[in-house]
Amino acid sequence: MTEENNPAQASDENRLIAERRAKLRALREAGEAYPNGWRPDTDATTLLERFADEEVWNQAKLENLDERFRLAGRIMSRRIMGKASFVHIQDGSGGRIQLYLRRDDLPDGAYQAFKQWDIGDLIGVAGRLMRTRTGELSVHADQLCLLTKSLRPLPEKWHGLTDQETRYRQRYVDLIVNPEVRDTFVRRTRIIRAIRDFFDQRGFLEVETPMMHHIPGGATARPFVTHHNALDLDLYLRVAPELHLKRLLVGGLEKVYEINRNFRNEGVSTRHNPEFTMLEFYWAHADYNDLIRLTEAMLHEVVTLLPGLKDGRVFYQNVELDFGGQYRRVSVAEAVAEHYPDLANGDLRDRDLLRSACRREAIAVEEDWGWGRLLMELFEHRVEPLLVQPTFVTGYPIEVSPLSRRNDEDPELADRFELFVAGREIANGFSELNDPEDQAERFQAQVAARDAGDKEAMHFDHDYIRALEYGMPPAAGEGIGIDRLVMLLTDSPSIRDVLLFPYLRPETE
Q: How many domains, the chain?
């Protein structure tokens, strides 16, 4: 039952908020509200790690330690016992440490003031270290001050914040009361840092490209539209940085990457958010096989750098994924034949055969779709969810690969791959199409598809064609979904679990 449907709970919270506001008014009148002069010199995690060994840092040795410590944190629990109290605070390190407060050891009036403070208040504390009778490391306080009055009570101590939508909507509370959430986002930062280090060490240059485009391009996706008031011009939030990054290849920056935000005006699900983070990188004088090897090396390095994952194995939703060694390679046609036994001996470029198979699977298809699009519908319908271990799928039809280079031996296929893990696409890479005339023809085909009603089809980008006409070196490029990768490496079932502020409908006032 939510708070809105529980009048008693809402009434209790309103009463508590009113009491806290009254305390804040008293602080304002005394000139003690929201001070900004306290400076901590350490944090809970540092102290707990430094003095973890109880045998080495016993009470006697702590008493002889000529060192005071200053911390700042949020009151998470307290136990008041007359002239002394025990308090736990949680600080920005994510650690929690106990405070021992005794009236006679604090400045006059400080202990009485503390007794009016509440769970959730932010405080400053200073003192020496001690151990309690149970051996718990604690700060024996000799200085104490209130930094910020919390006007809203934290969720119940024993139940925490469990409503999923409230957790996403009020991430600031989620981070306070659910420590594992903080761990997820710390790990996300480490993953991105490891990716940056990997590419920097291999001579790639990190760049930034525009967020607003005159023409949405680089992916078949429906864009968001915005408006530039001063220029009275409609612009599109980028669906991908690809075409700008390849312009840089033309300009002589032959190894570039960007970790970027993309925006696609599409559905929301456990794997999709309207804005998301991508890694895209482009490498001159390389092909898609080079990218496959580079991707394996990058993922193996990232995984092994994370705590607890030294062997390259990750548990995701109770399934062990092996990111070490060489990943499986299989073509789209081979994968479809493997999972559709009735098609195994047929011609997988026969439109009538594929159309019949789609009908049997209740897949809606368009009359003008070629064999490539039909084959991909079958692949996505049945095969994709079954690709659990890291698998590179190759041999994509050119029909669904408008920016990829044609295969020299089979022009109906693209030199392209996608990496699937746990039944979802993680990466998409291909040898780049650098023939301006071929690219112009494919753009024209996309425009025709758009005119026929395909809202995700690309526009014709004349400037990009002009750039190719100056000459782009042979190259390969790839995009990796950072959010989906982080989901795998943090055992998160939903993309919302790895976004600090995922998209949600506005609250009803």
A: 2
Residues 216-225 pLDDT 10s: 887 878 899 9
Quick check: 2 pLDDT over 70?
no
Q: Average model confidence (pLDDT) for the chain?
A: 93
Per the CB < 8 A criterion, the answer to whether 278 and 237 are in contact is no
pLDDT of 482 strictly over 60? yes
* Co-location of 63 and 130 in the same domain: yes
Q: In degrees, to the nearest 5, what angle opens at C-alpha 376 toward C-alphas 373 and 381?
A: 130
CB-based contact 118:89 (threshold 8 Å): no
Mean pLDDT, to the nearest integer, of 429-456? Answer: 90
The answer for residues whose C-beta is within 8 angstroms of residue 250's C-beta and 6 or more apart is: 467, 468, 470, 471, 472
Assess if residue 362 is contained within a domain.
no
Query: Domain of 10?
Result: 3-154
Q: How far apart are CA 507 and CA 491, in angstroms?
A: 29
Cα 364 from Cα 350, distance rounded (Å): 17
Q: Compute how many other C-beta atoms are within 10 angstroms of the C-beta atom of residue 54.
A: 12
Going from the C-alpha of 100 to that of each of 132, 176, 280, the distances in angstroms are 9, 22, 52
Q: What is the mean pLDDT of residues 277-292?
A: 98
Query: Which pLDDT does position 8 carry in this prediction?
Result: 65
User: 248: helix, coil or strand?
Assistant: helix
